[in-house]
Amino acid sequence: MTIHEGSDDRAVDPKPRGGEEPLADEPLCSEEEFAQEVRELVAADAPQVFALVEERGERLDGRIVAWGMAFDDHVDVLSVNGVRHASLPSVERAHRMFSRRRKIRLVWTSPAPPRQPEQVG
Predict the structure, then answer these.
(1) Domain limits, the chain
(2) How far is CA 47 from CA 12, 29, 43, in A?
(3) Longest dimension (CA), the chain
């Protein structure tokens, strides 16, 4: 499956690139088979989601201050209030950026992300 990478989103590329076969006029597989291939593509390329959680006091309270997505080559982070957005080279850098003035925990939404750039304990 051919992927076209835009600035913020991806879509199936209808145009062949150098050396690639042009797209056929007829579907190469059934709708169910194509849907399965698309699901596999998305699963293989999905970013790993994490939260940056501020710890208040000595385990007295906590609140999510930012959500992040870790890709193979970078991390995008957005504060929950929408004021702060950053694209950084690693999860560690995102954690440090939000930890400058407060105690922040890095929490992955899935127990063990298969593609973890740099993990902060």
Answers:
(1) 3-44, 47-108
(2) 18, 27, 9
(3) 63
Residues of the chain with pLDDT under 70: 1-24, 112-121
Name 83's Cβ contacts closer than 8 Å, sequence gap at least 6.
none
Q: What is the pTM of this model?
A: 0.67
Task: Quickly count helices (H) and strands (E) in the chain.
Answer: 2, 7
| CA angle, 85 then 80 then 87, to 5° | 20
Q: Which residues, including other chains, have CB under 8 Å from residue 73's CB and lie 6 or more apart?
A: 89
Q: What are the backbone angles phi and psi of residue 120, rounded to the nearest 5°?
A: -110, 130
